[in-house]
Specification:
Blueprint: H1 4-26, H2 33-40, H3 44-51, H4 54-76, H5 83-97, H6 101-115, H7 117-126, H8 128-141, H9 150-168, H10 174-191
Length: 198
């Protein structure tokens, strides 16, 4: 027999599942709470109990999407013979995850607009940006890149990956765009090697 805690968790998960799909398909502005709770077979009161508001639901959806992307990146960024291959595999995983309508619309388009840059960035710093910082540090530790300005290097790579992800979302051949971006990033890292530092 399920407990009340189990039932609450199932209800919360169902709301998040439906909300994620609707926010991805319709965008934040066009999602009405009435339609969301009707699809979930719940009342507005149940939604408010779990999330407090439409924005609260969206915040939870963004948090879940950020965690999902970070998990994909972590899985991809390990097990290769070279640290640079781990790093590039993680970057590729981010770009591939960003082809998902949920990730693109929720994280890259509506997330910063609805939550505000600072709130969105805080979540990003805890997930993808944290992994990028770790990866850049590992590249420096392995002697692949120079140790100078690692924070700036990570920030620039993050910005570039986000822009590529947005561009790929409407590209005719997004897979080719990902291949090209990873190749360019590999060449950029070569330019940051300690032997080229002045």
């Amino acid at each position: 027999m399920p407990t009340k805690v189990d039932q609450r968790e199932r209800t919360r998960a169902e709301i998040l599942r439906i909300a994620t799909r609707r926010f991805a398909e319709e965008g934040y502005a066009d999602v009405a709470l009435e339609g969301l709770v009707a699809e979930a077979g719940l009342t507005r009161g149940a939604l408010y109990h779990h999330f407090g508001s439409k924005r609260g639901v969206f915040e939870a959806v963004v948090e879940s999407a950020q965690a999902g992307v970070a998990e994909a990146v972590e899985r991809a960024a390990s097990g290769h013979d070279e640290v640079v291959d781990d790093f590039l595999a993680g970057c590729r995983a981010f770009l591939e995850a960003s082809l998902s309508p949920a990730v693109r619309r929720i994280l890259l388009v509506d997330g910063p607009a609805v939550l505000g840059w600072d709130a969105w960035r805080d979540g990003d710093l805890e997930t993808s940006a944290r992994l990028l910082d770790v990866g850049v540090g590992e590249l420096a530790d392995a002697g692949v890149i120079d140790r100078r300005a690692l924070g700036t290097v990570a920030t620039m790579i993050s910005g570039a990956l986000n822009e590529v992800a947005l561009a790929n979302a409407t590209a005719l051949d997004p897979a080719a765009g990902i291949d090209e971006a990873v190749d360019v990033l590999r060449r950029l890292l070569t330019g940051l090697s300690p032997s080229r530092a002045k």
